[in-house]
Amino acid sequence: QSVGTVTNLETYVQEGSLDQLAVPGADADTSDDPPLAGMMIGRELAINLGLFIGDSVNVVSPAGSIGPMGVSPKMKRYRIAGIFSSGMYEYDSSLVYVTIEEAQSFFGMGDQVTGIEVKVKEPEDADIIAQQVQAALGFPYYCRDWMDLNRNLFGALQLEKIGMSLILILIVMVAAFNIVSTLFMVVMQKTRDIAILKSMGATSGAIRRIFMLEGLIVGVVGSLAGGALGLLMCELLDRYQFIQLPKDIYYIDRLPVLTDPVLVALILGSAMLISLVATIYPAHRASRQDPVDGIRYGAEA
Questions:
Q1: Strand partners, 42
Q2: Which residues of the chain have pLDDT under 50?
Q3: Helices first, then strands: H and E counts in the chain
Q4: 189 contacts 245 by C-beta, under 8 angstroms
């Protein structure tokens, strides 16, 4: 069966096998009836219809023959030879597989097919290759890539990705304000120490660099610790899949994980940069402090 060369259907099979599609099975009714052809159905469809391996099911096609009473739907009985689960609710609840010869016979198509699936080495280039194939074939043929077929799903995921990015930015901004408030408290507590340093010859630039370095260290440590924890959670999620999604809403039953080193580096760098920017104003306030006022107020405190 050629479907295994362009899809991962063989890895999705939970019961039965693809080889059983071409093996005729005995009819459950009488021994005089011809053996039933095999059919593989999705897990969700099997649950909805209450079907198990070896059961029979009637398949009806509206494109039947024309008789005195109009169009008569064509019906044929099949044997359940396998059950697959791809993780995509839309596929598992609507797709069935039979051999090409059986499908051609059922729909009366002779040796023709309605479509050909092509597997590419780089999935991200599928839209470009589809355009090239479309240009080569011309009318009346048309090509649809996997991104076009799942446009609604990817649109929803993109929207959720934007929402999560905004939430992440807000979290980083709150952390930056915490750094600002922490540095202000340090400046207030170290008023006398700053005054002593300046009276001993420390320049305003040196004081500014000290507080900026303190805030940068806090930002770097926090960013690296948060990044390490996030990567660990992604690895555990990818391995154990402990987050389950409602398949009838999100079309998938698990949360996929893809770690992009470029994005990870960009996020960590942005967090560190925001932490550094957040230290500028408190460090500037500390560097402008008058040594005399600092010593006087520190003594009074």
A1: 84
A2: 28, 30
A3: 13, 5
A4: no
